[in-house]
Amino acid sequence: MYSSFSKSFKIALGFCLILAFLLMLASYLHTREAVFLWLNTDMGVIGDNLFNFCSHLAEGWIWIPYFIFLFGWFKKDAVFILLNFFISTLLTQIPKNFIWSKLSRPMASSIPHDQIHTVPGVEMNLWSSFPSGHTATAFTLFFVTLYFFPKKAVLLIGAVYAVACGYSRVYLGQHFPLDVAGGMIVAVLTILLSIYIRKNEKDNEAFD
To answer: What is d(CA 16, CA 195) in angstroms, rounded to the nearest whole number?
Structure first.
């Protein structure tokens, strides 16, 4: 049976928190614009196509096939899976639309447009920068998967997937690394809150 706080799960949480902290620290010490320009590099056609694809893999619709995939194994945990989706959405959309709705993305910042690498065909957003919803989705999916399958292979593949999706938002010029860090923190809060709620429900059922 899976364990919510397996060794692999703890490693994933630690990795995510450390990476988020480093991105936030770098943004504080060197400004979010400077860190963005360090990471927003042009990797040519291969990089453009790869990270555009990775970005699509972290959009909200990905929860639908993901839920169908997991539901076959863990029917009793359908509510838990959906809970992660709803908490992640709330923790992302409330700040983006009601708290920091006027916070600029790279294309609306002081950075000259000719210094920003963009990918042809990708529609550029200008506002509601923090946190990155794509990053929150990718890391939440990573944590949920590791919750059910606490294997080293899942840890490695999931980490690559989540980091690639998060970095894609910087590569495409859609977010600052600081926004990506915020999305990672959202994912940590999402999975921990979902596990807490799930555990309380199980304890109440056992008590009843």
So the answer is: 17
Task: Tell me the C-alpha distance between 51 and 167, whole Å.
Answer: 8
Please choose, from the candidates 44, 204, 38, 53, the residue with its C-alpha nearest in 3D space to the C-alpha of residue 106: 38
Q: Which helix (H) or strand (E) holds 46?
A: helix 44-56
Does the reported pTM lie above 0.90? Answer: yes
Crossing angle of helices 133-148/7-30, nearest 10°? 160
User: Does the pLDDT at position 1 exceed 60?
Assistant: no
Enumerate residues 6+ apart whose C-beta is below 8 A from 75.
none
Half-sphere exposure of 157 (CA within 13 A, CB side): 9
- Percent of the chain whose predicted confidence (pLDDT) is above 90: 85
CA 183 to chain centre: 5
Helix then strand then coil, % of the chain, to nearest 5: 75, 0, 25
Beta strands in 61-160 (DSSP E): none
Query: Which amino acid makes up residue 85?
Result: F
Other C-beta atoms lying within 10 Å of the C-beta of residue 90? 12
Position 200 confidence tier, pLDDT thresholds 50, 70, 90:
confident
**3-class DSSP state of 111:** coil
Q: Which one, of 12, 43, 7, lies nearest residue 157 by Cα?
A: 12
Alpha helical stretches, state H, the chain: 7-30, 32-39, 44-56, 63-71, 78-94, 133-148, 152-171, 177-207
